[in-house]
Design goal:
This protein has 208 residues and is mainly beta. It is built from 3 helices and 12 strands. The protein folds into 2 domains: 3-116 and 168-204, Translation factors (Elongation Factor Tu (Ef-tu), domain 3, Beta Barrel), CATH 2.40.30; 117-165, no CATH class. Helices cover 9% and strands 42% of the residues.
Length: 208
């Protein structure tokens, strides 16, 4: 499986051979280094842990310093784990760059969405407002909570005001439009979760 950690740079648009506009997200992907290899024999499942982005050793705590010292690699700011079918041939310290991807590949990209803070039901769930006349006295509130003495409670899952955004989301089957090995950049068609600078997990699409 092709996997990398990336950072969202932003969105732009490019043109294909026929002059058609393609909206793309620019992702700085890699270089990543293999920090740990997990196997069925030692951990019960197959996975590789990748490190991305340099960081000063003084910014790490003792367990993190020991983790990188054991792997004998330079400290990395971000660590992410990827489940794989097999870890055969993968060794700690191997560097992965954006050239693992090629134009035409399809990726699943996972990230954390933008946080919107505390929001009401209109913005959070797309509900309709009440009449805006002064006499209605009902404009943007959530509405009825349900029955009275029976069951005497609000059922779980009721759409109410609350914290919106900042959740882990995976966008599937995004096409790789262009790969720039010199700048460690990959362009994918469409949008990906998170603001500019968000850390993303890129891997081969499971439904491609």
């Amino acid at each position: 499986m092709k996997t990398l950690i990336g950072k969202k740079v932003g969105m732009t648009q490019i043109f294909d051979e026929k002059g058609k506009v393609i909206p793309v997200t620019v992702i700085e992907a890699g270089p990543c280094v293999v920090a740990q290899v997990k196997s069925v024999e030692t951990d019960g499942y197959n996975a590789i842990q990748l490190g991305f982005g340099d960081v000063k050793e003084s910014r790490l705590n003792k367990p993190e310093k020991g983790h990188f010292a054991k792997a004998n690699i330079a400290p990395k700011k971000h660590l992410r784990e990827f489940r794989v079918d097999s870890v055969e041939g993968v060794t700690v310290g191997t560097e992965l760059t954006v050239n693992v991807f090629t134009e035409g590949d399809r990726l699943d990209i996972q990230g954390t969405t933008k946080g919107k803070g505390f929001q009401g039901v209109i913005k959070r769930h797309g509900q309709h407002r009440g009449p805006m006349g002064h006499g209605s006295m009902y404009h943007r509130r959530p509405g009825s909570m349900g029955a009275t003495s029976t069951p005497g409670r609000v059922f779980k899952g009721k759409k109410l005001p609350g914290h919106m955004g900042k959740v882990t989301v995976t966008i599937q089957n995004l096409d790789v439009v262009k790969v720039d090995n010199d700048k460690n950049v990959v362009l994918v068609k469409g949008s990906v979760p998170g603001p500019k600078g968000a850390i993303l997990k890129l891997k081969t699409s499971v439904k491609a």
